[in-house]
Structure formats: structure tokens, C-alpha cells
Amino acid sequence: MSLIKRILVTGGAGFLGSHLCERLVADGHDVICLDNFFTSQKSNVAHLLDKHNFELIRHDVTHPLFLEVDEIYNFACPAAPGHYQYNPIKTMKTSVMGAINVLGMAKRCRAKVLQASTSEVYGDPEVHPQPESYRGSVNTVGLRSCYDEGKRAAETLFMDYHRMNRVNIRLVRIFNTYGPRMHPYDGRVVSNFIRQAINGEDITIFGDGSQSRSFCYRDDLVEGIIRMMNGPDDFVGPVNIGNPGEFTIRELAEQVIELTGSKSKMIQMPLPADDPTQRQPDITLAKKHLDWEPKIALREGLQKTIEWFQSIHLDDYRAPTP
Ligand code: NAD
Ligand code: UDP
């Protein structure tokens, strides 16, 4: 039997955080979910509230934390462009002050701490696909910078606490992930297209739809994250976790229309500033060190996600407020 640990998940009520909490609770660990509910709601973890090994705390990671834990998954941060651009200064504070607070806590109680970093550290990449050694092409003063640069600064803080204070860290660069429990109004492409297709609304293609993304289903992502946390101490990352299957945005729209049987039409809208033209993870390191690769193809994952969207009441989801 594996060792039971006390584990903190910041941003634990969010899309990815709630699935991570669910998995850790099922594995028998004592899980503390911490969230300020900026982009999520309690319903994401309501099914865990009566479990003896689950606790929920309302807290903002920009303020110091005092808990005694063995491991920390630092997932607190708005992730969708519309969410992180709502209050860009707060987004940067969440990444930077949040990292300082979890790292300080990890140092004090000798916890292992994993950072949810992002493919956005590569910006609009000139190298394709992106290996971890690629240093990225990020605009420091654009509308996406609060997120991209906040996450880059967090990676720096993690490495410096590791080198200076021997904090046991893990850095994971997550590529676009989708699945049930994504916020239906987060403005991300998968949630927008599915919602629009189900409601018979126009499918909004930004630009000409030739830009690409690589979409990872949430179960594959959670498995990769758990493997990285429990992997060898001499492999701290950064490691890419994502699905190398690359699709243009137009191809994604076509698949969603086909799978929903929707009569929605595609319409073109202006491309947002600094929108990356291509993105595909090189997962050589994850395969080698974690024996991990994604198993769920886009079509299968979209089918499950569409079923979830069809099962919820969209009115239960409010727009995020500060
Ligand atoms: P999400 O918005 O569903 O989850 C983020 C959670 O953090 C929410 O519950 C939100 O309320 C909480 N939060 C935000 N600011 C906070 C603060 N100051 N204090 C406490 N809690 C706060 O997004 P997600 O898709 O689940 O993303 C989770 C993490 O994974 C984020 O750090 C994100 O940057 C990273 N990530 C996600 C993706 C993806 O495709 N989903 C890709 C790359 C990186
Ligand atoms: N996008 C789109 N229509 C939408 C929402 C997004 O065409 O309704 C595009 C967006 O311009 C980008 C891609 O889909 O090129 C992915 O956008 P998302 O916000 O999901 O994630 P990110 O840009 O952070 O990868």
C-alpha cells in the first residue's frame, strides 16, 4: 500500500484542480483544497465535501499560508485569456506572490511542491514542436504578458528556491487541456465551440482558423501530473505535459459540429493580439522520465466533453468576479 500523505492543492476547485483533488482523495490521501473561487465554484468539489479525507478552504494565494503538508500542487491562477486579462495585475500577483507563498511554506515544512506552469512560457514559438530547452518568444508588454510572464517568473522562483534552499520542486508545462468541468463561459476555444454548437449559435473562429493547438484530455493530464510529482527527485523538470496531436482551430470546429450534429455556421472574428500561431508539445522527456504519454484521442475526449456540456445547466455558471 502506498504512503498516505497530506496534500494541498491550490486552485483545487478549478477545472484541473478539482480533478486532481478527486484522484488524490480516491488514492486515500488527506487532501486540502484551497481556492478563492475567482474562476470556479464549490459545485466542482461538492461531491468531495462529505469525504473524511477532504477539506475545503477559501483563501487567496497572494496571502501567506500556514499549513503543515507533505506535498503541494500549485494550480491557483486564472488560465483562460478572458479570465486572466480581467485583472492582469492580480494575475501577475497570483503567479508571483502565490509562488513565493507556497515555496516559503514548502521550505518551512519540507514539502515537495509542483508548479502548474504552461506552454505559454514559449509565447508565439519559432521552434516547432516545442521542447523544454526552447526559451520562448514572449511579448513582455502585451495583453497576454500578465499570464505568460507571471508563469515564467514563477518558474524562476521555483528553480531558485530549489538551488538556494534545496526545496524539492517539480515544474510542469501544461499544454491546452480540456474536458468535463471546464468553465462553460471561460472563452476558451473548446468550451466556446461546444457551447455554441449545442445552442445552435455561430461558431466564432478568430482569424482564419489556421492557427493550431494541441489538445490534451484532462485524465491524461492528471496522470502525467501525478507521475511527475512522484517521479525521481533528480528530474525536477521543466517537463511538457500535453497531447502532441495538433489541429487547426478550423479542424476543431469541424469536429465539434460533426460530433454534436449541429447546424451552426462558422463565422470569422478578429484574431486577438499576440495569439500564438502554432503550438505542439515535444514530449520526449515525459516519455523517457515518467513513462507517460497521452492515451485519449481528440475525438474521444470531445465526445465525453460534449456529453458533460449537454448534462449541465449553463445558468449555474456565473462569470468570474474579483
Ligand atoms: P481554472 O480557472 O479552472 O482554475 C484555476 C483555479 O484557481 C480556480 O479555481 C480559481 O478560482 C483559483 N484561483 C485563481 N486565482 C486565485 C488566487 N489568487 N488564490 C486562490 N485561488 C485562485 O483553470 P484550470 O484550467 O484548471 O488551470 C489550473 C492551472 O493549470 C492554472 O495554474 C493554469 O495556469 C494551469 N494551466 C492550465 C492549462 C489548461 O489548458 N487548462 C494550460 C496550462 C496551464
Ligand atoms: N479561438 C477561436 N474562437 C473562440 C475562442 C478561441 O478561434 O471562440 C482561438 C484563439 O484565437 C486561439 C485558439 O482558439 O487561437 C485557442 O484559444 P484559447 O483561448 O482556448 O487558448 P490559448 O490561446 O490560450 O491557447
From TrEMBL:
Its cofactor is NAD(+). The keyword Lyase applies. This is UDP-glucuronate decarboxylase. GO terms for molecular function: NAD+ binding; UDP-glucose 4-epimerase activity; UDP-glucuronate decarboxylase activity. Residues 7-242 form the NAD-dependent epimerase/dehydratase domain. Keywords: Cytoplasm, Decarboxylase, Isomerase, Lyase, NAD. The lineage of its organism: Bacteria, Pseudomonadati, Planctomycetota, Planctomycetia, Pirellulales. Its main location: cytoplasm. It comes from the Bacteria.
